[in-house]
Design goal:
By secondary structure, the protein is an alpha+beta fold. The protein contains 1 helix and 4 strands. It is globular.
């Protein structure tokens, strides 16, 4: 858990606003599921919060 959002509702709002990116591609669907494979995934919220998701 990266702790980018204080609640699930806030996370959904940020996704709807287009503030969430995976590998620099905007995610706008709140039901989108991340499937982790052997390659790390970069997740970003806005300009200043970034993290790497690994398996």
């Amino acid at each position: 858990m990266l702790g980018f959002a204080a609640s699930n509702g806030e996370a959904r709002r940020k996704i709807g606003e287009g503030a969430v990116r995976l590998n620099d591609l905007a995610i706008t669907d709140p039901s989108f599921e991340i499937v982790l494979e052997d390659v790390p995934v970069k997740i970003s919220l806005g300009k200043k919060r970034h993290g790497i998701l690994t398996r």
